[in-house]
Amino acid sequence: MTFSLMLRRSLYTVLIAALLAFFAIPMLWLASAPFDSDPGVGLRWPDWTLDNWRITFEHPYALGSLVNSIVLCAVATIVTTALGTLASYALSRVRIPGRDALLYVLLLLSSVVTGTAAMVPIFVLMLQLGLINSQYATGLVIAGGMLPAAIFILKDFIDTVPRSYEESARVFGASPGQVLLHVVLPVARPGIATILVWAFVQAWGNFLLPFLLLRDVAEQPAAVLLRTLRDEGGSANLTVIPAFSLLYAIPVVALYLFVSKRYGFRFHGGIKA
Amino acid sequence: MIELTGLSTVYPNGVRAVDGLDLSIADGEFFALLGPSGCGKTTLLRTIAGLEQSSSGAISLAGRDVTKAEAGKRGVAMVFQDYALFPHMTVAQNIAYPLRVRRASKQAQQDAATSTSANLGLSDYLERRPGQLSGGQQQRVALARAIAMSADVLLLDEPLSNLDARLRLEARTFLKRLQRDLGLTTVFVTHDQAEALALADRIAVMAEGRIRQLGSPKEVFQRPADTFVANFIGSTPMNLLTGTVRDGQVDVAGALLTPPGDLRLTDGAPVIAGIRPEYLKPGTEGITGVVSIVENLGVTSLVTLECPGEVLVGLTVPEHEEPAVGATMTAAPAPGRLLVYDSETSELLTA
To answer: Which residue among A164, A169, A173 places its CB closest to the CB of B82?
Structure first.
């Protein structure tokens, strides 16, 4: 082995190790800090204790905000997945002029609609409708912002469902509803599962809209509450934040594992196209 | 019985895929719609199934007018070219699907799957998914599903085109026996003339949305009604040679050929002589030319003769009798096998 080859290998290993550390250290902090008697921003072997958890559970808003998050996300995810699936099926099967242009415009606008540009109009709209501090309304606004992207992605999945499947079902006497339930949805299931998880993760991590539209601390979801976790002195409350962060991370991981196991992000082998 | 009267199907872009077509198919008949791609045969099949709306004309099935009826309410089962098996259902669920749509009991569904699959040799695969089956097995599942519908009419869209060449012959025999055993009125679409000749009781040769010739495989093969059909049918292309009538005989490729006995021809009329390579027999009189190419077809060889006036004539010779390239050879049509077509209308001239 030559010297230059050895040097190259060592550099490669060092680079990989640095990259790995960059991503691993926050994870390790998340795993160890909640159990440390004196958690800091650094990483160290914990001095084991469960006191942080007791304090977190005693926090007046911590657990409530997680429940709020779940309600908010459930509304946003269900609305996005259900409407997105139906809309993309229609757009995939019905020929209307300018269909693709419509999709691209929707996609472009969606990043504006829920983005900072529409922040004030959305707030004013919701205020006048009297929907401030309503989790369901906030969920709908989040869903509205996610729908164009969801339709765009789902349409690709539904485009791959051969029309002959539907025609075959129709010849056997299936009604349009039966065609959808028996054939299209099951075949497009991996795509729908993907959108379901994607929508949940998007809504779970959404900060801006709940921050704007849910002014009452008791109504705020975890993503917003996390920002307000400070001690009397105004610095970050490192007793509650680590444990709360770990709790906050669990649902997303759990949902991913559940959907992956139950529905699978894969495609059943069909026939040659 | 399937009865089509003046049926037309026009696509939104104005293409008349099926153009004023009249056809009647008897009960229990195995009927082929044959034609090149784009001739409207698949559109016609889909119109019968109700997947395309006809623009004018009427369809009646077993005496019932179904022109406006929806697909699924016509008593018609169909097997698609790609089989359209549902990949997320097992073979048993696929076969029982027509019953599930009608909300039959689970027991009835299971019975249908078991009995239909037994007839098609699928009993061992009921719990598999379509993706785990070979092409031939998938085709049989698709057939089983169509049969389980217990419809009056079975439609097959290119039933053999997705199988490889070896399996195709096997499936052809299987399909013919199945159709005969079930006695089900069956219409199938194909672009493969050999398939149509082998399977069908009757063939409709289609071009540009119309039927060019309707007849038994024998009639269509032996007496094509026009030069289009003549060209399309037969695995070795028919010789279509331009000539003129002289003294009641056909002057073609430097030879005078005698037309079938009762055919009266006007002197000097331009005609097209049609002779299948299989019906040209080597002899002492007839078309004479130089052997330019010999192609081995297995039991026979296809010999191409270069005749006077740069006319190419093909004939088949049995094995071991192939002439050498460059040799001179004479051949004449077997008695009664010469067909004469009008060169203007390209239609067969008959007595």
So the answer is: A164
pLDDT score at B258: 86
φ/ψ (deg, to 5) at A202: -60, -45
Smallest Cα distance from B99 to chain A, Å: 9
CA–CA distance, A43 with B113 (Å, rounded to integer): 63
> Which residues in chain A are closer than 8 Å to B83, comparing Cβ atoms?
271
* Block mean pLDDT (10 aa), chain A, length 273: 88 95 90 86 83 87 92 96 94 86 83 74 93 93 90 90 94 93 91 90 91 91 87 78 90 86 56 33
Contact yes or no for A270 and B76 at CB 8 A: no
CB contacts, 8 Å: A272 with chain B = 135, 162
**Which is nearest to B305 in space by CA: B286, B335, B321, B326?**
B326
Chain B nearest C-alpha distance from A169 (Å): 8
By C-alpha distance, the chain B residue nearest A166 is B84
- ipTM of predicted complex: 0.84
Contacts of B84 in chain A (CB under 8 A): 162, 164-165, 167-168
Nearest to A182 by CA among B313, B100, B161: B100
DSSP-derived letter for residue A219 is: G
| A:B CB pairs within 8 Å | 81
Query: Residue B88 and residue A187: Cβ atoms within 8 Å?
Result: yes
SS3 for A202? helix
Q: Give the confidence band of B260 by pLDDT, cuts at 50, 70, 90.
A: confident
Structure tokens at A136: 């369901």
Residue B107: partners with Cβ closer than 8 Å, 6 or more residues away: none
Name residue, tokens 């006048």: A128
Instruction: Please tell me whether residue A144 adopts helix, strand or coil conformation.
Output: helix
Closest-approach residue (CA) in chain B for A171: B72
Is any Cβ of chain A less than 8 angstroms from the Cβ of B163?
no
All residues of chain A having their beta carbon less than 8 Å from the beta carbon of residue B82 are 162, 164, 271, 273
- CA of residue B19 relative to chain centroid, distance: 19
Global confidence as pTM:
0.82
- Reported in sequence order, the residue ranges of A86-178 that DSSP labels E, i.e. its strands, are none
